[in-house]
Amino acid sequence: MIVIRLREQIARWETEHQQRLNYEELANLTGIGPATVNRWANNDVEMRVLNAFCEFFDVQPGDLLTYRPAEPISESDADRATREARERGLGIADLIEAPSR
Question: How many CA atoms within 13 Å lie on the side-chain side of 47?
Answer without folding.
Answer: 16
